């Protein structure tokens, strides 16, 4: 019997997506979820699952996207060392289609704020849709690339939105996007406290940290997804970032921890806290 992933792969094509939508709908119903809609948004390349009155987006079809699933993913990855609480301010860099943004928004509540940053224009359209359809009033979303200097950068436009990154050598299939430093972004948005910086930007973390000098004293916690696993899989040295990030954080007097799970993607996450602002990893560690 074919696996669920095999079924998805076979049916995720324009002529058969209606069958896939029906199967996904039925699978959610079997799990006892109040599912209202399953949609494939061609214009911004994402799937929408509307469950219990809330729309969740994914870059691909699936059987499990809901609040509990996304919260579990968050706790295992960017929220492993610190999970935001009511009233927090979160900067979500590399927000993608908003999988974590929607959870951050709920966790910080009406008294908190989430600043979601997504550089890729097409992916940003998905993020904008998520914010609008769910009326996320505590989310400010920005289509900008954070980098080491202000100006413009080229962003890859591959079919896999999760793998798109800043390009050192422009390609035909790419977007030119406005760029600014993290410090300038913080000042432009008048952000005076930052409880968590989450960063998942496919190698560009090494650029962003160079532009966050003035803001370091405002940051309590960081969760940075490094991408050495992509380098080890034969991709560019641009993705070899973990040592760069570790050295930067330790030099900046942050306390640092990593995971040791034997899953290279998970273990390339770097978590840090500022001992001048908080006493430790107040969440899962």
From TrEMBL:
Methyltransferase FkbM domain segment(s): 92-254
Pfam families documented for this protein: Methyltransf_21
Species in which this protein is naturally found: Chryseotalea sanaruensis
InterPro entries: FkbM_mtfrase, SAM-dependent_MTase, SAM-dependent_MTases_sf
Origin: domain of life: Bacteria
Protein name: Methyltransferase FkbM domain-containing protein
Signal peptide residue numbers: none
